[in-house]
Specification:
The complex is a heterodimer of chains A (365) and B (447). Chain A is mainly alpha-helical. Chain A is built from 19 helices and no strands. Chain B has 447 residues and is an alpha+beta fold. In chain B, strand 4 and strand 5 form a beta hairpin. Classes of the chains: A mainly alpha (365), B alpha+beta (447).
């Protein structure tokens, strides 16, 4: 477009000048920055992330975005190749886009559910890393899960193998190694569509590329079963083990002693009949009361609750073991039925809990 | 050597936590700390374990470092309920020079192992794989639970030893284990550090594998900081430094309990020094980024006056501590410019931060802004000791310092700032008369 046309256009329509578009986007970025600054300023110091969690969460988010980016590009490139558009495939492969920065600029990464998921994963991995290894009663056996891989029950040994693989992949992801992109499909959809839109904006307009990107995003969103999230494999192992009440408390403490926090979480979630993330949240909460009530609701005895509390306090400097010891007798005085009633909300479906929380926050219910 | 191989000392306590009896070694430790039979154990960390065991009603184990003469002893203390009282058993008695306790060493070893790794692995005490980081062309996940020898064919060294197996026998750190990766035949060099459980038992190795075909790290070109070096440096330094800062902050804030004022202050100093080092890591990572041939800053519409005001805001605490005021009244109206917000802010923080550092107490750092032709500029004016004409070019060089006698600073700040300014189509210039202060001017293309 020639300069005179641009001027004439801007004369006709004062908002056609690109500076307005840039100013509008700069202003929304500035608002986001300001909101973040306000949150940071007003957040109380206890709620602030420690440096290790912040670094690991950043690495984890980057790794997930990187994995999805690679998956999308690989699928789109294959599609383009299959349809004879080799040049467009090449352009897509060599395109350099700072995907995490673009998604952040677009506000896509500010989705609460995504951040909760990342912080949940990182919090869980870091807590697991700090759990004291406790080989008590298991010396020479190499830990609970390795032992389960040798189980005669093929369901248990298969699930234990899958769990170990997923656990290793998760640890690598937290350490900043490439991720498998194993997000729940809702979150994958939340990221994948904006990602193809970002790729699209960086490519020359082309119907073939559009079709390829749409195909790739749909595949990535729907590719359940291709990657096995740690949470799902842990739940599968818990289901395969199907412990009775006595075995359950033993398995939970052994899983913690083996530093397999996610298996302990899954065992409790299954016994409680709720989802993994509800128990993970209670497990990571340094205040702990909800978890202690959960354990009471499962009728765990004092030595078991004491062992679990001790291990978690040793792993998390924010928790006070003396404070926990102060509480334990009062906790044991709570009856199983009362404890179950107190945590009844935890057993509701995830979306239901979110809705209740939202309405409560807004003072409606 | 394993903690289990060392004789175990024992003691018994009554329901109130008072010492009933102890063997010679523990009795001596108690007496040295001013304790006696019939009272609480005089080493607070051990008394706390006895009390917790009693209150929780379970056996617990913890590693405890105690002063034993001029050296620190690291003890593995295990306490279990016995009747109404508590029975204590203490193993370990490992002696280290003060401050070099087992746990710290194990963690540090692990960080070094990480820093040197192309990929990581972890095995249990039976050398079965607990973890393998994902490696291209290998189904690492399928190997979890298998003996380590399924993954690596271990080679003997020149002396005919197999370092990993030697280390297994002595439960110590090893390096220089040549091996071949069974799936694929890649040659690697392995190193590892032992993992110990809360009871002091050997629980396996945390290990690293380095591609043996790659040049060793120190032989890689350091000029321009190769990507791998940068990534490793970042990973190797950031995690341990983050841990130092977080722990020092917890100590300074007395999260674990009351602490004498001067110790809390030391912890604040440690946290501050840690943050300084993190800042240096950031500088080096920036340096690596900007020296890459394809480095580009984003061009977005920013308001340079607003950027300068924000930078001044970020430095207001530091300025108040140095008793320097930052006068922003000369910034005037908006200065729309083309540049990357984050990078422009980084430049302004560097310039204003330098000015605050070199300003005498009670003086002001003055910020002025203006539009000049196609460019906008912000000047940062201080009344410090100024910069001699012959130094005015040198200060923008890599690792140069405005005043080499000043402590702190990496000597990279102005170099990075100038590179960033140029990447955004701008410039940083300096004017100064020695003894009368300096004026640094940051210009960017106006919009």
């Amino acid at each position: 477009m020639s300069g005179s046309t641009a001027q004439r256009t801007s004369g006709d329509d004062p908002f056609a000048n690109p500076i307005f578009a840039r100013a509008a986007s700069a202003s929304s970025r500035a608002r986001r920055r300001r909101a973040a600054e306000v949150r940071d300023l007003l957040s109380d110091s206890e709620a602030r992330l420690d440096e290790r969690t912040r670094t690991a969460a950043g690495a984890c988010l980057d790794a997930i975005v990187g994995a999805l980016d690679r998956m999308i590009r690989a699928r789109a490139a294959t599609w383009l190749d299959e349809h004879g558009a080799h040049d467009a495939g090449g352009a897509l492969a060599t395109l350099s886009v700072d995907m995490t920065a673009k998604l952040a600029d677009g506000g896509i990464l500010s989705e609460t559910a995504l951040i909760e998921e990342v912080l949940g994963r990182v919090g869980e991995a870091l807590l697991a890393e700090r759990l004291p290894i406790d080989l008590a009663g298991d010396e020479g056996a190499g830990g609970l899960v390795l032992r389960l891989t040798a189980s005669h029950d093929a369901k248990v040994s298969g699930a234990a193998h899958a769990f170990l693989a997923a656990d290793a992949a998760r640890r690598a992801e937290i350490d900043g190694e490439p991720s498998t992109g194993d997000l729940p499909s809702a979150l994958r959809a939340h990221l994948a569509w904006p990602m193809v839109a970002i790729l699209r904006a960086a490519l020359p307009p082309d119907a073939m590329s559009d079709a390829a990107l749409a195909h790739a995003a749909a595949q990535v969103v729907g590719s359940i079963g291709e990657v096995h999230p740690l949470e799902a494999t842990a739940m599968r192992l818990a289901k395969a083990l199907a412990p009775d009440a006595d075995e359950l408390s033993l398995l939970v403490t052994e899983a913690l002693g083996d530093r397999r926090l996610s298996l302990a979480t899954a065992l409790i979630a299954r016994a409680l009949g709720t989802d993994y993330s509800a128990v993970r949240e209670a497990m990571l909460d340094p205040e702990g009361e909800r978890l202690w009530l959960v354990l009471r609701a499962l009728d765990f005895d004092k030595p078991t609750i004491a062992r679990i509390g001790w291990l978690l306090c040793e792993a998390d400097a924010r928790r006070s073991v003396e404070g926990f010891a102060d509480q334990i007798d009062a906790l044991m005085a709570v009856g199983q039925a009362d404890a179950a009633a107190a945590i009844a909300e935890l057993r509701l479906p995830h979306a239901y809990r979110d809705a209740i929380h939202l309405l409560r926050q807004r003072g409606i219910a | 050597m394993s903690a289990n191989a060392v004789p175990i000392s024992t003691a018994r306590f009554d329901a109130d936590g008072h010492l009933i009896d102890a063997d010679d070694r523990l009795a001596a430790l108690n007496a040295e700390a001013g304790g006696a039979p019939g009272a609480f154990f005089a080493v607070p960390a051990i008394a706390a374990i006895v009390r917790l065991t009693h209150r929780l009603g379970i056996a617990i184990a913890r590693r405890v470092t105690v002063g034993d003469g001029d050296e620190d002893a690291e003890l593995v203390v295990r306490a279990e309920p016995e009747g109404d009282g508590v029975r204590l058993s203490v193993a370990g008695w490992r002696l280290h020079a003060t401050g070099d306790a087992l746990v710290t060493r194990a963690r540090r070893d692990a960080d070094f192992v990480r820093a040197d790794a192309d990929w990581l692995w972890e095995v249990d005490a039976q050398l079965r794989l607990r973890f393998v980081s994902p490696v291209e062309g290998m189904d690492a996940a399928a190997l979890i639970g298998a003996p380590v020898t399924r993954l690596f064919a271990l080679a003997e060294n020149d002396a005919g030893d197999v370092p990993m197996l030697e280390a297994l026998a002595s439960q110590s750190r090893f390096e220089g284990q040549a091996a071949t990766v069974r799936p694929g035949g890649q040659r690697v060099m392995l190193s590892g550090s032992p993992v110990v459980d809360a009871g002091g038992r050997f629980a396996g190795f945390l290990g690293a594998a380095r591609d043996d075909r790659a040049e060793p790290m120190d032989a890689r070109p350091v000029d321009g900081f190769g990507d791998i070096f940068g990534a490793r440096l970042d990973k190797a330094l950031r995690l341990p430094l983050g841990r130092i800062v977080a722990n020092a902050d917890s100590i300074a804030e007395r999260i674990e309990g009351p602490l004498a004022e001067q110790y809390a202050d030391y912890a604040s100093d440690i946290a501050a020094a840690g943050r300084h080092l993190l800042g240096l890591v950031d500088d080096l990572v920036d340096l690596q980024a900007i020296e890459r041939p394809d480095f580009e800053a984003r061009r977005e519409e920013i308001d340079l006056a607003d950027v300068a005001a924000r930078a001044a805001g970020l430095l207001s605490v530091r300025a108040a501590e140095a008793k320097v005021t930052i006068d922003r009244s000369g910034l005037g109206d908006a200065l729309p410019a083309s540049g990357e917000f984050r990078r422009a802010l980084q430049v302004m923080v560097n310039l204003i931060g330098n000015a605050v550092r070199y300003s005498p107490e009670g003086s002001s750092v003055v910020l002025t802004g203006a539009r000049e032709g196609d460019f906008v500029r912000v000047s940062v004016i201080d009344s410090g000791k100024g910069i001699a004409p012959e130094d005015q070019t040198r200060i923008f060089e890599k690792f140069a310092r405005v005043d080499p006698s000043e402590p702190g600073g990496s000597g990279l700040g102005l170099y990075i700032s100038q590179r960033l300014a140029r990447a955004m189509g701008g410039e940083i210039s300096v004017e100064s008369v020695p003894g009368e202060g300096a004026r640094f001017t940051f210009t960017l293309p106006g919009i």
